[in-house]
Design goal:
The protein is mainly alpha-helical. It is built from 23 helices and no strands. Helix 9 crosses helix 17. The longest helix has 50 residues. It is globular, with a radius of gyration of 22 Å. Keywords: Cell membrane, Ion transport, Membrane, Sodium, Sodium transport, Symport, Transmembrane, Transmembrane helix, Transport. Belongs to the sodium:solute symporter (SSF) (TC 2.A.21) family. InterPro entries: Na/Glc_symporter_sf, Na/solute_symporter, Sodium:Solute_Symporter. Its main location: membrane.
Length: 518
């Protein structure tokens, strides 16, 4: 990498840190820190939702799938996400927002204590938080692999520099810093992505290469289903991603909660869905074309690095690397913020009741300390992991396979059709799905990826719906909570709730519990 490339990367980090410092002026309390108090414009919420699903994994592991098998990578990943978010726009987006607007909820799990009871809430919170530590560790490894490939920087330094910068801006600026950097990263991604696309087209003979290159690629690279990707795996991912990207991945629920109202949250979801259907395909075209430009690679995970080194001029390598940073930092920052919300609002007060008595300033400090602790734990796991195969194992065999059992009680509990489904169904569906995953992952040596991803979520879904029908639980408080999510509050209700929560900020935790309880 040249001096100009490093200058571009350095400028990127400076801007990210500056956004964190500026966003700190917009954070007065934990409501600002976790949900921006519903003041994020719908289009910014939608872009942030979209960007929070990316990481450098796309340019390492998914680039390898595109290099080895072709266009199938689009069908099993972004297409399933885009379709899933499109469905969720009409089922979940507005309901997440109304939890905040009507009940003052700042954590996606806060409503579960009323919905199912405290034990169920704690089980889902701990299992989800543990999963996120592993997930984020894979993101750190991915960006470190890219740094090592481009600039021969040791993995330890790659993980450390990226982690510390992310820790700084999200700790100071909270959700505002997160969504604003997401937007900046979207712009960087667009410039870098189109630069690579134009470079590939120029190398292959112009715009016509977009439809002529398919005949020159290895056999099967134009097939929607190829290699290890099967139709069963695509359908399993569609089911999992529908839950995961509509709130099962907690940070994405926050994007809906941060919009001004339910209808605008739905618009933000539709924008994110449209971006998922279109933009990743543009990013994948160079990866799919890579065998024509850098053929014969022994390690396909290096394909995007070699492609960039072959085609990109001085300065643009730095821009691409800044784009890689932006993907990873966007996802990690949003995950850090929501995990902090869950720990601060749902876990810590149960373990240490004194947390409930913290002043608003004390809660904000506690949230920032928790953010540092979470990022540090994920970095430590990344540092001690073996990068060979770690990323793909985490992305498919662990995160995708276990996200369904964890998210089904959380997501379906929002819907009116399941308002009589209680704690028994939630706990059994969670435990049953994870048990099936554990058996397939450790007990069956040759289980397919489709089975490992699909069977746990199907098991949880059947158990949740079946037990809910067989043993319905009537509870007026639970029914009122679910019914209240059917429409947005009036302007008078919204203002009254905001005044109520800001009038005595030192007792906000108690107020939140009373509001949820009706």
């Amino acid at each position: 990498m040249s001096v100009l490339d490093w200058t571009v990367v350095g400028a990127y980090f400076f801007v990210m840190l500056a956004i964190g410092v500026w966003s700190r002026t917009r954070v007065e309390n934990v409501a600002d820190f976790f949900t921006a108090r519903g003041r994020v414009p719908w289009w910014l919420s939608g872009i942030s939702h979209h960007m929070s699903g990316y990481s450098a994994i796309m340019f390492v592991t998914f680039a390898a799938v595109a290099y080895d098998y072709g266009v199938t990578v689009y069908f099993w990943w972004p297409l399933t996400i885009g379709l899933g978010i499109g469905v969720g726009a009409f089922l979940f987006a507005a309901r997440w927002n109304r939890l905040r607007a009507k009940h003052g909820v700042n954590s996606p799990l806060a409503y579960l204590a009323v919905r199912y009871g405290l034990p169920t809430q704690q089980v889902l919170a701990y299992s989800g938080a543990a999963l996120k530590v592993v997930d984020i560790a894979a993101k750190w490894v991915a960006i470190a692999v890219l740094l090592q490939g481009f600039a021969d920087i040791p993995l330890v330094w790659g993980i450390g520099v990226t982690g510390v910068c992310t820790m700084f801006y999200v700790t100071f600026g909270g959700l505002w810093a997160d969504v604003l950097t997401d937007f900046g990263q979207f712009v960087i991604q667009a410039v870098a992505g189109f630069a690579m696309l134009f470079a590939v087209m120029g190398h292959l003979g112009g715009v016509s290469s977009l439809w002529t290159m398919w005949g020159d690629l290895p056999e099967g690279h134009g097939d929607p289903v190829a290699g290890d990707v099967t139709l069963g795996l695509i359908m399993a991912f569609l089911l999992v991603k529908t839950f995961e990207y509509n709130g099962g991945m907690w940070n994405l629920a926050q994007r809906y909660m941060s919009a001004p109202n339910g209808s605008r949250a739905r618009k933000s979801a539709l924008l994110s869905a449209a971006l998922w259907l279109v933009w990743p395909f543009i990013l994948f075209v160079p990866m799919i074309a890579a065998p024509l430009i850098v053929p014969g690679l022994d390690n396909a995970e290096d394909s995007y690095i070699r492609l960039a080194q072959e085609l990109m001029p001085t300065g643009f390598i730095g821009l691409l690397l800044a784009g890689f940073f932006s993907h990873t930092m966007a996802m990690v920052a949003s995950d850090s913020n929501v995990i902090t919300a869950v720990i601060t609002r749902d876990l810590a007060p149960v373990l240490v009741p004194r947390v409930r008595q913290l002043t608003q300033r004390g809660q904000l400090l506690f949230a920032r300390v928790t953010t540092v602790a979470f990022v540090t734990a994920s970095m430590a796991l990344a540092l001690f992991s073996d990068p060979d195969g770690f990323i793909m194992t985490v992305v498919v065999s662990i995160v995708a396979a276990t996200m369904g059992p964890i998210s089904i009680p959380l997501m379906l509990g929002l819907l009116p059709w399941f308002k009589r489904t209680g704690a028994l169904a939630a706990i059994v569906s969670w435990a049953g799905g994870l048990a099936v995953w554990a058996y397939l992952y450790w007990g069956v040596g040759d289980a397919s990826e489709a089975a490992t991803v699909g069977f746990p979520v199907l098991t949880s879904l059947v158990l949740y719906a079946g037990i809910g029908l067989a043993r319905p639980e009537d509870d007026a408080e639970r029914t009122a909570l679910v019914d209240s999510l059917a429409d947005d509050p009036s302007e008078e209700e919204r203002l009254a709730l905001e005044r109520r929560f800001l009038a005595d900020p030192d007792k906000r935790g108690e107020e939140e519990e009373r509001t949820l309880a009706g």
